[in-house]
């Protein structure tokens, strides 16, 4: 009888071999039936996909502590790309997300900001640490995207860059003598900044997300949402959702990759809110005796981390607190796997 976790109860005639199946951290349910075998310790098994009942403490839960200790020692990598026209607050948003000066713009003070004639990709890597956990963060900016009169094929350099990172990882992976830990420069998430026009998605926005959503996790956001009223924001968000559905564009989190009903329920609530209407600010202000991140206007202070003012907290939760590992898993198991299969098929055909 198949069970989750390690098969501790061998089937009849199978001897005592251990065959690992799916890993499960869930505690075993209370069994309803008991089956005994001759010469074996009687263990109870519940009907359905649950593990055997343990008659003593094993210590399986300790693997979580082991994983935590190992992660804290080695750290982990997270690579994020921001795409959008100039002036939409991409650099400020990244600084607000990670509460540090990690953007391209803030790392190059004193340099005059010039709009490039073509799309140029610039990556900056920082190591940030919080409560003993180290993260190697790489932020890739795309200055020049959508800033020209003719924006035809302006997404090509971005697609080329993403595929180059997949190719770099693939070349390391197929070596006979591989590194113990392959450096991961693959883009785990792409935050796409939609201008706050209040109308519909532009053909440029639709074409970019249609092409990029097939090779990377795309998270659309409405930039500088404080320029819209609450009614305009709600209508604009609904129109964008209709645009995405009409053109069959699947942005993150994708419905096809929900693993169970619990994930589906959580991601459905997120999908109802996408695109997030966000406001970025990297300056603190005094509000009711507290220091808060926000934008100061003559009508008051827009608090970035206040859900009543904008949806920046939802974006931060999605990218960091709840779905960071899922972004990395989908990048590796879906997008990179598709690229790997395609490249290996091409190599076999050439051979």
UniProtKB/TrEMBL annotation:
Region (Disordered): 1-39
Keyword GTP-binding: yes
Name listed for the protein in its UniProt record: SEP12 protein
One Pfam match: Septin
Assigned keywords, A-Z: Cell cycle, Cell division, Cytoplasm, Cytoskeleton, GTP-binding, Nucleotide-binding
GO biological process, one term: cell division
Family, per entry: Belongs to the TRAFAC class TrmE-Era-EngA-EngB-Septin-like GTPase superfamily. Septin GTPase family.
Species, as recorded: Leucopsar rothschildi
Any one Gene Ontology molecular-function term assigned to this protein's record: GTP binding
Entry-linked Gene3D superfamilies: P-loop containing nucleotide triphosphate hydrolases
Localization (cell): Cytoplasm, Cytoskeleton
The keyword Cell division belongs to this UniProt entry's keyword annotation: yes
Domain Septin-type G: from-to ranges: 74-346
Membrane-spanning ranges: none
Gene Ontology CC terms: cytoskeleton
Lineage of the organism: Eukaryota, Metazoa, Chordata, Craniata, Vertebrata
Primary location group: cytoplasm
